[in-house]
Amino acid sequence: MGGWAIAVHGGAGVDPNLPTERQEEAKRLLTHCLNLGISAVRSNLSAIDVVELVVRELETDPLFNSGRGSALTEKGTVEMEASIMDGPKRRCGAVSGITTVKNPISLARLVMEKSPHSYLAFAGAEEFARNQGVELVDNDYFITEDNVGMLKLAKEANSILFDYRIPIVGLETCSAGAAATESPLQMNGLPISVYTPETVGCVVVDKEGRCAAATSTGGLMNKMTGRIGDSPLIGAGTYACDLCGVSCTGEGEAIIRGTLAREVGAVMEYKGLGLQEAVDYVVKVRLDEGKAGLIAVSNNGEVACGFNTNGMFRGIASENGFMEVAIWE
């Protein structure tokens, strides 16, 4: 075994004009969560315990798009989703359409451990949560003033925010009977100076070489109610096996099409690639025209990240003393 390793992310695709204070705020949260995970794994917690612990912390802080601070649906409500996977036996649990559960990642783990299923959604997931006695809150708890403002802008732009911090130069817009024209707006119609957060995730390999992964999100700003993204989909947004653990972030529809998280393990297994090679291959080859990023660990203590956006909120650390918290390339 090569020792423990951990990585955490807060989303791929970053506004290049993101104010310095926002950057520092994000780095502080990532550093805090990374240190929380390092302390836990050093205390001999299993990988699955550590990823849940770290993602719970990210869900509790409103900075990123999970738990409190989640993006809002077209109706101004929050519908969250999360998944978790334990590598050794490929056990997994996932939830979608969560509206009252304070920590969706813990409900996903309960689905894995306390139900005969792998995935519960909407009313059924909420009923399961009540039966399990998890902490519940009003939907208003998850809604922040910033995101109310983001939803207003999205509606004014008549847009769903797919990867809503990635600028698209020369975005083409069409109207009935009119030719396409160039627009200075982002893909989602928001000014470049607007900051909005993204999906969170954590991957860990513990001292025993066990890998685990967890991902949690509020989804897209101004999304249709009932929309499900990549984050709760095992093999797309989250995957863990004997070889590795992976958590993805970015344009969910592209991640789903590329089954991105599973592909990392697949090319390691079938092509014999190392972890960073596998991550680089998947980001370059499997995303087509999509924009996304991912973090990954391997069972021999490697840790890696990759993205084809201009930045990704991330922190990584390993037993050999390496530690980095970064945003840009």
TrEMBL record:
PANTHER family: ISOASPARTYL PEPTIDASE_L-ASPARAGINASE 2-RELATED, L-ASPARAGINASE. The active site is at 199 (nucleophile). Heterotetramer of two alpha and two beta chains arranged as a dimer of alpha/beta heterodimers. The record marks 198-199 as: Cleavage. The keyword Transcription regulation does not apply. The lineage of its organism: Eukaryota, Viridiplantae, Streptophyta, Embryophyta, Tracheophyta. GO terms for biological process: proteolysis. This is beta-aspartyl-peptidase. Gene3D superfamilies: (Glycosyl)asparaginase. It comes from the Eukaryota. Pfam families: Asparaginase_2. Signal peptide: none annotated. Keywords: Autocatalytic cleavage, Hydrolase, Protease. It catalyses: Cleavage of a beta-linked Asp residue from the N-terminus of a polypeptide. SUPFAM superfamilies: N-terminal nucleophile aminohydrolases (Ntn hydrolases). Its EC number is 3.4.19.5. Substrate binds at residues 227-230, 249-252. GO terms for molecular function: asparaginase activity; beta-aspartyl-peptidase activity.
